[in-house]
Amino acid sequence: MSPDFKEGDFVLLLRVPFLFRFLKPGNVIAFEHGLYGVLIKRIRSLDPIAQEVVVEGAHANSLDSRRLGPIRRRAIRGKVIAHIAKT
């Protein structure tokens, strides 16, 4: 999510078993992707029945759900609750 987040920044994640119920559009999450590793993106929409989220990046060419598809609940590592930029 450059320029908001850059490689080397630190983030604090909220990880609880029932986290999915408390996520909403606009929240920023970290999730695991098999090919790209850990990604940080903003939630655009949720599908609680399928337990998937659609994520978007910070700019038009972002690697997000337009290319990755929806993100499954099991891939979500947590909700970003704090961000410390690398100096």
What do these coordinates show?
The chain is mainly beta. It has a single domain, classed as Umud Fragment, subunit A (Ribbon), CATH 2.10.109.10. The chain has one helix and six strands; from the N terminus they run ββββαββ. A six-stranded antiparallel β-sheet has the order 1-6-2-3-4-5. The chain is globular and about 40 Å long.
Largest sheet, in brief, is: 6 strands, antiparallel
Secondary-structure-derived class: mainly beta
Helix coverage percent: under 10%
Report the end-to-end length measured between terminal Cα atoms.
Answer: 17 Å
| Average pLDDT over all residues | 91
- Shape, principal axes of CA atoms: globular
Unreliable parts: none
Q: How large, in whole angstroms, is the Cα Rg?
A: 12 Å
CATH class: Mainly Beta
Can you tell me the CATH superfamily? Umud Fragment, subunit A
Which architecture would the CATH scheme give at its second level? Ribbon
- H/E series, N to C? EEEEHEE
Give a quick set of tags describing it:
87 residues; mainly beta; Umud Fragment, subunit A; 6 strands; 44% strand
Compact summary:
This protein is mainly beta.
Give the SSE map.
Elements lengths: L9 E5 L13 E6 L3 E11 L4 E5 L8 H4 L2 E2 L3 E9 L3
Antiparallel strand pairs: 1-6, 2-3, 2-6, 3-4, 4-5
